[in-house]
Known about the structure:
Layout: H1 2-17, H2 24-44, H3 56-99
Amino acid sequence: MIKKLLAGLMLSVVVLLAVPGMPASAVTSQATVALSTSVAPLAQQATAPPGPRIDPAETDRANAEKTKNKVVIGLIVLVLAAIVVGGRYLRRKKRKAAKS
Length: 100
């Protein structure tokens, strides 16, 4: 009984999803034609659009600015590292003085 019910449900789903009046080969050939016509304009475009123009003066200026920023950040890192190391040194020195 259950097998017949499932078979009937599957058959009704297949019938509802099938395209009425068109064989399966006609559907695939239409899809192929539609696909080939939509790809054709892309294949005809042989030359690439021009990209951005890069000015060497702007590039040199940007590189100089980037280098300056890196130097400033490096100096800040050195100062902060010196504060941390100095603070640890002073803390250790105070601990030794308190134990004695």
